[in-house]
Amino acid sequence: MSPDALLIKQRLALVRDQLANEARRCGRDAATVHLVAVSKQHPASAIAAAAQVGQREFAESYLQEALPKLAALQALQLTWHYIGQIQSNKTRAIAEHFHWIHTLDREKIAVRLSEQRPHYASPLQVFIQRFVALRHHRSRSKISKPWGAL
Asked: Are 125 and 101 in contact (CB under 8 A)?
């Protein structure tokens, strides 16, 4: 194992131990907690090393940087999360290559992602970003329909 791979293994073990301890402290089964490694600005080789020691979920926020990595690592069958702000002109690539979206904040983007998801792919998993407050507050979120209407 290369020195970089050994360091990744050690760091992942430390983070997993911390997550397990926090899960137990909160009365949760640690097996129900997923670690998503943010891999932006890291090379495909580092992601492959992390995958080799059991890390299966990775997050990217720069689409242009992510696509070559996803292609290079396709054989590893990893789960990919998109965590950046989504621009309309990037929805097709995101819909085609990612499994999870963490920053869905506009109905227009939700519709585009749904329409552009390949028919053979599993449904896109999303976290809807919605500002909820008792008083008026300016928010970037454009999702205004009740949850049941989406």
From this structure: yes
